[in-house]
Design brief:
Order of helices and strands: HEHHEEEEEHEEEHEHEEEHHHHEHHEHHH
Mean pLDDT: 88
Pfam families: ROK
Number of domains: 3
Protein name: ROK family transcriptional regulator
Radius of gyration: 25 Å
Low-confidence stretches: 1-5, 419-455, 458-462
CATH architecture of the largest domain: 2-Layer Sandwich
Strand content: 15-25%
Structural class: alpha/beta
Largest sheet: 5 strands, mixed
Family: Belongs to the ROK (NagC/XylR) family.
CATH superfamily of the largest domain: ATPase, nucleotide binding domain
Length: 462
């Protein structure tokens, strides 16, 4: 066989192994498993699984733990677990009125967190400077070297061009049009950055961490200062050609209605965005509507008294009704299993939810309504950072993401490795342990040189 004919076969075998490795890591992210379980789940031989596991132990991504009975006398299986501290993730939630930065492990558990009030209207430069300070503070609190951070994931409250990481004409972010968020933060932080719309991240958070985990067809509606939707179809996030799919807030629910921030008459946001509800409530209070709310009315007050104050209840029922009209359009278009409503407006609770359900389902064809649930999110304020974490995991736990994850894990392993000293009883790296054993995996240096960091694009290519 010629060399030219042999090369593609070699590349194919490497690609197949990388695919199996990424699937194995995804299984371990879901929970601890024995080698025999993994072999069964992936349809591979025990020897193939052992080879991949030895490699993952060698780079520090997998650890051996407790044993369990196999059901046969005298045989016990060792459980394998994902080493969640082998790499860190930085999740950044840019809201209309806040910035949150969470340093997380590979299971998206917080290692350090910072949240501060901040108006996105302050513009990119001031926002980036604040993000950099918060990132530095989180790393310092956790005692984490930046080299152990695999990725930075950012959610923004506006449309994002998925290929470039630029914000495109965001109605609720004046001064940000065309802003290269990904490139700007990569330059400031010196780390690979992914950027997406906050509603898309909410959808990813729900299917990985929420009560509807694993649902293939789900729509997440984030209702706050702006209103947007993340659309999951067949288990994949539907972004559209550039990343602008899901802008439900700019659907016209009344073509003769008021003009919203997007310039569209009768858009959902012109009826149900947070600032609109507050303005409506204050105008009705000033006009003598029955209420125990004092002026000026605020959104927290409306949320707090949603069930007890007549004016607040009226405002939330109206907002839910208008939101339901727009949701009915998504139900008839996509027929999802679940619609999850999150964001600050979801804090109003059942009065808001019930109005949205009633309005949506009464306008939806029976075939698209019968098996669909409409629920409030249970993730609360964590949805943004958890969604950023899910986005980063979806990039790293792929064949194209593995080299970068391996490189970062080696850095983490080296940072935690006990140093050899003349007076130590521990053997130098590579001595006194069988090849592939856990003890050698924890103390030996990687055999091959660490590859350079991989540059990730917002479009998902690495």
């Amino acid at each position: 066989m010629s060399v030219a004919a042999a090369v593609p076969a070699t590349l194919d075998l490497a690609a197949i192994r990388a695919r199996h490795t990424s699937l194995l890591l995804r299984l371990l992210w879901d929970g601890d498993r024995a080698r025999v379980d993994i072999a069964r789940d992936l349809g591979l031989s025990r020897s193939a699984i052992s080879s991949i596991v030895s490699e993952l132990i060698g780079v520090g991504l997998v650890e051996e733990g407790e044993t369990r009975g196999s059901g046969r006398a005298g045989r016990r299986a060792t459980l394998l677990s994902l080493n969640a501290r082998s790499a860190a993730l930085l999740a950044i939630d840019l809201g209309a009125s806040h910035v949150r930065v969470d340093l997380m492990d590979l299971r998206c558990r917080p290692l350090a967190s910072r949240t501060v009030p901040h108006e996105v209207l302050a513009g990119p430069a001031e926002t980036y400077a604040l993000v950099q300070r918060l990132v530095e503070g989180a790393l310092q609190e956790a005692g984490m070297d930046p080299g152990r951070v695999a990725l930075v994931g950012v959610g923004v409250p506006g449309p994002v061009d998925h290929d470039t990481g630029r914000v495109i004409r965001p109605p609720n972010m004046p001064g940000w049009d065309g802003e290269p968020v990904r490139a700007a933060l990569q330059g400031r932080l010196g780390l690979d950055v992914l950027v997406d719309n906050d509603a898309n991240l909410g959808a990813q958070a729900e299917v990985r961490f929420g009560p509807h985990r694993g649902v293939a067809d789900l729509i997440y509606v984030k209702a706050a200062t702006g209103i947007g939707a993340g659309v999951l179809l067949g288990g994949r996030l539907h972004r559209g050609v550039r990343g602008g799919a899901g802008e439900i807030g700019h659907i016209s629910i009344n073509e003769q209605g008021p003009v919203g921030r997007s310039g569209n008459p009768g858009s959902l946001e012109s009826y149900a965005a947070a600032q609109v509800l507050v303005a409506q409530a204050e105008a009705r209070r000033a006009a003598g509507a029955e209420t125990r709310l004092s002026g000026p009315v605020t959104l927290p007050a409306l949320v707090r008294h949603a069930e007890t104050d007549p004016l607040a209840r009226e405002i939330w029922e109206g907002a839910g009704h208008h939101l339901g009209v727009a949701i009915s359009t998504t139900l008839n278009l996509f027929n999802p299993a679940v619609v999850v409503i999150g964001g600050r407006l979801a804090e109003a609770g059942p009065v808001f939810l019930n109005a949205a359900r009633s309005s949506a389902l009464s306008r939806t064809m029976q075939i698209n309504a019968e098996r669909t649930r409409i629920d409030l999110s249970t993730l609360g304020a964590d949805a943004g950072v958890l969604g950023a974490g899910a986005m980063m995991l979806d990039q790293l736990l792929t064949p194209r993401g593995l080299p970068h994850l391996y490189a970062v894990s080696r850095v983490s392993m080296a940072a935690q490795q006990p140093k050899w000293t003349a007076g130590s009883r521990a053997p130098p790296a590579g001595e006194g342990a069988a090849a592939g054993s856990p003890s050698k995996a924890r103390t030996s240096a990687p055999a091959e040189p660490t590859p350079p960091p991989t540059v990730f694009s917002s479009g998902g290519s690495i």
